[in-house]
Every structure is written in C-alpha cells, then in structure tokens.
C-alpha cells in the first residue's frame, strides 16, 4: 500500500480538474443558489476544532430555515440540541465552515464555504422565533464560495429511493445503543425518545 503525500501524486492518479467543474465555483449566491437554499429543509455544517479535527453536524427545519440575507450572507438559527456546542466552539477557534444543502427528491446538492460568526442580538434572534421560542444564537455566514455538486453520490446511494430504506427496527433503538456504549442502567425506547425530542424541537 502506497501512501499519497503530495498534490502531484494525486493529480497523477485523477488528472486535471474539468473545466466546467472549475468554472462553476461562484464567489456569491446567485438566483439558483438562493432558490435552492430557500427550498432546503436539511443542511450539513462542517467545522474544524481547536485540535485540528474536522466535525460535521446535521441541521434541519422547515424549508428556508437558512435565511439568505444578501448574495454574500447567510443567517442560520441554532435550534435546541445536546448542548455539546461542538460546532459553535469550533467556530470560535476556526471560523471557516462548509455547508451542504440537500432537498428531498433532488440528487444535486449545493455546497457553500465561508466564515461564520456567532450572534445573540435580541432583534436578530427574534426574527427566528417559532411559537414564541427563540434560538439562543444565530450564525452569520460570510459566503466565499458556492457551487452546485453533481448528483453521482446520491444516485449511487439511492438516498431518496423508498425501496432501499431500512425498517428502523433493523437496528437497536438509540437508547439501547447508548446503554451499551456508556453503561446506562435502563434503555429509553425509541417511542420515548421521539416523544422527548418532539417536546424540545424549538
């Protein structure tokens, strides 16, 4: 097994970047990017920790939960989670982030890269209130790069194809897996977990 340690070695294997792939990278959000973000109910946020390790986390809400403030700015409310604050503390150390927007039924995705800052202005958080509940913070993302990603990965995975979806009972419940991993005395059932989640979505 040979370890690849240089860009030249990589390029020898893969060849040059295709012209269309290079040209599709934008330095702002055009009308198509804005429309895709407005339709997306799900996004993956990538950050880098103080230790240099990468981290990715899912973010989801009603379509359009990420606000396009202008062609170089996004606003992302931080909804209740597990309070580990991995992404937020990572951003404090390294503000560079990557976003991947998905739309159910669409195999193409949108990638956005830039830098983020964490804001807690009352007037800003109030813009993202749901049923009177405000996010504690909002990420403001300065967009540096935006580009459409081809459909191949989602086509190979058949991500949206109901025929390949597994029955949830194929795996233990989250509670059972956590019991085994961290030695909990009892295991929360899947139904109990979902009910607890529903009570704290916002």
From TrEMBL:
Keywords: Hydrolase. One of its GO terms (molecular function) is hydrolase activity. Residues 30-150 form the Pyridoxamine 5'-phosphate oxidase N-terminal domain. Transmembrane segments: none annotated. It holds the Pfam family PNPOx_N. Signal peptide: none annotated. This is Phosphohydrolase.
